[in-house]
Design brief:
The structure is a single chain. Helix content is 35%, strand content 22%. It contains 22 helices and 28 strands. The chain has 3 domains: 155 residues, K homology (KH) domain (GMP Synthetase, Chain A, domain 3); 262 residues, Ribonuclease Z/Hydroxyacylglutathione hydrolase-like (Metallo-beta-lactamase, Chain A, 4-Layer Sandwich), CATH 3.60.15; 186 residues, Rossmann fold. Strands 12-11-10-9-8-7-28 form a 7-stranded mixed sheet. A hairpin with an 8-residue loop joins strand 7 and strand 8. By secondary structure, it is α/β, with parallel strands linked by helices. The two termini are 35 Å apart. It holds the Pfam family KH_TffA. Its cofactor is Zn(2+). Its EC number is 3.1.-.-. One of its GO terms (biological process) is DNA-templated transcription termination.
């Protein structure tokens, strides 16, 4: 018998010892980080609401209780009784029964009403029918991504359970080494923006954090083939942690499966869905531009299948000697500061990912309160001495002024925007400005993936700023459904029609003008001196967006009918930059993030910024807070214990 089987046997005995005599346990299994308890008495479990909580506290495990398949009530009868229990105003749209696990997935417009106060309605459902309810939200805006991900995971349910059981046994295996050390190896995004990737190593465990591309430089990828990463074989990596879905952090996650990785990816639920959306688009753009994609779409599905979603604040075992906790990073939907607790109090490391420290219209500001942190790996995108962004209120006023001036001239405002995060932030600004009369009501055309990304945002309101979440679901005032917003889904014909019509605002991907529909808008409107191009997000070095921003007035554009042919376009539209809408903290935000950290770290690695930015930030943190700081290069390894 393996050590894991002995451990499960012992856990079952401990659980049975804690349970009342009328409740039996038929099996205990690990599924990922969770301990799953099978019982012939699910109703009795549900009648004692504190029982699972007490077991979880005593065993220090995340526990899920499932009924044995042979005690389940008939799904048709169960459906009737479930609908009697759930309030009608919850808006149930689907019930999906899974006999193999005894779970019923309930999709509803208002999941909170299905859950009930402190889970009371869920317990009532189990008491009535024996099935274990799982609740998901019906997207207020129909999302093909959310629908496809849910359907795919439903189809792959059996294989996914096998994956989770294998991962669970790996997490809870016996520790093999008595050595104690912690190392971080930098594989990308050091003294540069893009291709974020790190390896966190202990004698027991090797964890890959992020695996992205570099905007404007498709041939520059993380140093994955070094011995610390995939050089010794893909399955020497125990786990992958994805901080958020932007491509400079997620684009090459599916590539790991092409190389033979078969382990878990830990991320938030919206990060999983957005990664699917963005990586599939990444492949589509590569194909349209005549480049060979680095992996097939099947690898994206493999990545989604291996995702284990975690919620903010949940402390989760991901290896025998590592616990992971995600905290809100304030950057984009589902973005996470990733806190690793290593060993039995041995060491603590936090990776900021990308952060925004202050509240925005879309998100609450980044969390920086942890039980312990000895080392912080900190993004430095705007870490330079003069990288201060305009106050958000001033930024919004600047955008309003530009729109009004362009409208008076009869021109159109074109805003290159990242589909995820900045677009939704700008949508909220425009909706409020039109509603309050600060700008005239006019069509706001959303091109590229912006509408789909917006639909995903409304599927996960618990990740949005508190007051915005309340507007969407408690006051039935979803600002993303304002009548001015129009989803461009008619291709070039619709773009030509918009060009021929009157004043309008166009939000279009890609945010750094590296391809996508923004190139079409430049062809249509770039030579119009009455129109304005407004940059609202970071433009990385080497991108066409950065070149236009710094004065290029002749730009290469490809022929839409023959991507291999290009010509030069004289750019006559006004070009403006409005700071303050970035999803990144500026210089003061980064300094304040560290200054107010509780506790303050002993060491900081400044990464994800150009050379000047990381060195400026590293130097200032050292002088102001008397801490050890580093501005590492790629392929450096740091030992911390």
């Amino acid at each position: 018998m393996s050590s894991v089987d002995k451990q499960l046997e012992q856990l079952q005995a401990e659980i049975e010892n804690e349970l009342p005599s009328d409740i039996t346990v038929s099996d205990v299994k690990y599924e990922g980080p969770e301990l799953v308890v099978y019982t012939r008495h699910p109703k009795e479990f549900a009648q004692n609401g504190d029982l699972i909580r007490k077991l979880a506290s005593k065993l220090r495990k995340r526990i899920t209780v499932r009924p044995d398949p042979d005690v389940l009530s008939d799904p048709h009868k169960a459906e009737e009784r479930i609908m009697d229990v759930i309030p009608e105003e919850a808006g149930v749209t689907d019930l999906d029964f899974h006999v193999d696990t005894g779970e019923v997935v309930i999709e509803a417009a208002k999941p909170g009403m299905v859950i009930g106060r402190h889970g009371s309605t869920l317990r009532e459902i189990t008491k009535e029918v024996g099935w274990t309810p799982e609740v998901v939200r019906t997207p207020p805006i129909e999302s093909s991504t959310v629908s496809n991900v849910r359907n795919f995971l439903k189809q792959e349910r059996e294989e996914r359970r096998d994956i989770l059981e294998r991962v669970g046994r790996q997490i809870h295996r016996e520790e093999m080494s008595k050595d104690e050390w912690v190392r971080i190896t930098t594989l990308g995004c050091c003294r540069e923006v893009g291709r974020a990737s790190f390896v966190l190593s202990t004698p027991e465990t090797r964890i890959l954090i992020d695996c992205g591309d570099k905007p404007g430089a498709e041939d520059e990828v993380p140093y994955l083939h070094v011995p610390e990463a995939l050089g010794a074989g893909a399955n020497t990596i125990d786990a992958v942690v994805l901080t958020h879905a932007h491509l400079d952090h997620s684009a090459l996650i599916p590539l790991l499966f092409k190389y033979g990785y078969d382990g878990p990816i830990y991320c938030t639920e919206p990060t999983r869905d957005l990664m699917g959306l963005l990586t599939l688009d990444y492949l589509d753009v590569a194909a349209k531009e005549g480049r060979t994609p680095p992996y097939e779409s099947e690898m994206v599905r493999e990545a989604i299948k291996h995702c284990i979603p975690l919620e903010y604040g949940d402390v989760t075992d991901i290896a025998p000697d590592v616990k992971l906790t995600f905290h809100n990073a304030g950057h984009i939907l589902g973005s996470a500061v990733s806190h690793f607790h290593i060993g039995d109090g041995l060491y603590n490391v936090a990776f900021s990912g990308d952060i925004h420290y202050k509240d925005t219209r879309l998100f609450n500001g980044a969390v920086n309160d942890f039980p312990r942190v000895e080392t912080l790996v900190l993004e430095s995108t705007y870490g330079g001495r003069n990288d201060y962004q305009t106050d958000q209120e001033d930024s919004e006023q600047s955008l309003v002024d530009i729109i009004n001036e362009t409208h008076e001239k009869g021109g159109k405002v074109v805003i290159p925007a990242f589909a995820v995060g900045r677009s939704q932030e700008i949508m909220l600004v425009l909706e409020e400005a039109m509603r309050s009369g600060k700008i005239p009501s006019m069509p706001v055309h959303l091109d590229g993936m912006i509408w789909e990304a917006t639909a995903i945002h409304t599927t996960y309101p618990e990740y949005l700023r508190d007051d915005l979440r309340d507007r969407i679901f408690h006051e039935d005032e979803n600002p993303f459904l304002a009548e001015e917003f129009n989803h461009i889904d008619g291709g070039e014909d619709e773009r030509q029609q918009v060009t021929d019509d009157g004043p309008a605002i166009i939000l279009s991907t890609s945010g750094m003008v590296t391809g996508g529909p923004i190139m079409s808008w430049l062809r249509h409107l770039g030579s119009d001196p009455e129109s304005t191009l407004v940059f609202v997000g970071y433009q990385a070095q080497g991108t066409l967006g950065r070149r236009i921003q710094t004065g290029w007035d002749e730009i290469p554009v490809s022929d839409p009918n023959d991507p291999g042919r290009s010509s030069t376009l004289a750019l006559k539209m006004d070009v403006e930059t409005v700071d303050g809408f970035s999803g990144h903290a500026d210089r003061s935000g980064l300094m304040n993030f560290v200054k107010t950290m509780n506790p303050r770290p002993e060491k900081v690695l400044c990464v994800h910024g150009d050379e000047r930015s990381v060195q400026d930030l590293s130097s200032s943190l050292y002088h102001d807070f008397n801490m050890r700081t580093f501005a590492p290069k790629n392929l450096e390894t740091f030992r911390f214990k």
